[in-house]
């Protein structure tokens, strides 16, 4: 019964996934000569989950660090824009009006994000260029150090906060209207970032209280997000959900705890499904055969929603968690 209700909710309400490395996936498919990529590989899968919007993150693999990060990011954007141009089912979202258009015309909206500032190559002016290309969200780091600061790693004690360049990026994001994603930053950097002005959210993290992993957020960090009227979006990667016997109920434990901590209006979905990218990338061969994802298909997000209903999260709150919160937050944040 709860699954059928969850499915109905997904098909009748706004569904938002706050993190997918879609530009890199599309780029790898494009260099193999594939055409009509979004329709062939993603449209039906997104529709099966009821998706309306996907924040599409430009992720730079470590192979490109130091000499080709910017070029690789531009190739990802170019590949995704070309793929969008081949279909009427998708649309690049750059404004709140674009979001309304997606809903009224039943298009899937794709919002570009930078996962780490490596493509800027230390030049703040380049951020303006990426904004003109459609980038509307940005995290300062991935799980490594770059020009902006230190990413999250196991040993937080040996890390510092933001660099001067990182602070300049935050300031310019605020001026341009780029949403700051606090994901992947280390604890010291997070504490500094959360005190700065700007529209902020966390696109793909879980609760460190439910499972003590350095990539998850502490209760105190989550409470500080609430002060920004911000949202934390939960991550499907098994390593961040629990140590063993990871399943949908354990995943929903993270959501329930966050709801109890800060209220349902500050929680969303940001699944970070990785397995497809691992299968496509020539630089991630060491992970071949390993599955990172709990949700093996996008539509399995409905199982998470069903679990929330079973655990007593009321339907109104579930509707907000699966997408209503992010829709309102991003609509307000985008100029």
Give a brief description.
The chain has 335 residues and is of the alpha/beta class.
Helix/strand order, N-terminal first: HEHHEHEHEHEHEHEHEHEHHH
CATH class membership: Alpha Beta
| Unreliable sequence segments | none
Proportion in helices: 40-55%
The gross shape turns out to be globular
Estimated structural class: alpha/beta
Q: What is the makeup of the main sheet? A: 7 strands, parallel
Count the strands? 9
Beta-strand content estimate: 5-15%
Number of discrete helical segments: 13
Distance between the first and last residues' Cα: 41 Å
Which architecture per CATH?
Alpha-Beta Barrel
According to CATH, the fold-level topology is: TIM Barrel
Task: Please state the average pLDDT score.
Answer: 95
Question: What is the alpha-carbon Rg in Å?
Answer: 18 Å
In the CATH hierarchy, what is the superfamily?
Metal-dependent hydrolases
Query: What number of domains?
Result: 1
Can you offer a commentary on this structure?
The protein has 335 residues and is of the alpha/beta class. It has a single domain (2-333), classed as Alpha-Beta Barrel (TIM Barrel). Helix content is 44%, strand content 12%. The protein has 13 helices and nine strands. It has helices spanning 2-12, 22-31, 37-48, 69-85, 96-104, 125-132, 164-176, 187-193, 219-227, 248-262, 275-280, 301-310, 315-333; strands at residues 16-20, 53-59, 90-92, 108-115, 135-139, 179-181, 200-201, 232-234, 267-269. The strands form two sheets. Strands 1, 2, 3, 4, 5, 6 and 7 form a seven-stranded parallel sheet that branches. A two-stranded parallel sheet has the order 8-9. Strand 3, helix 5 and strand 4 (108-115) form a beta-alpha-beta unit. Helix 1 crosses helix 12 (301-310) and helix 2 crosses helix 4. The chain is globular. The mean pLDDT is 95.
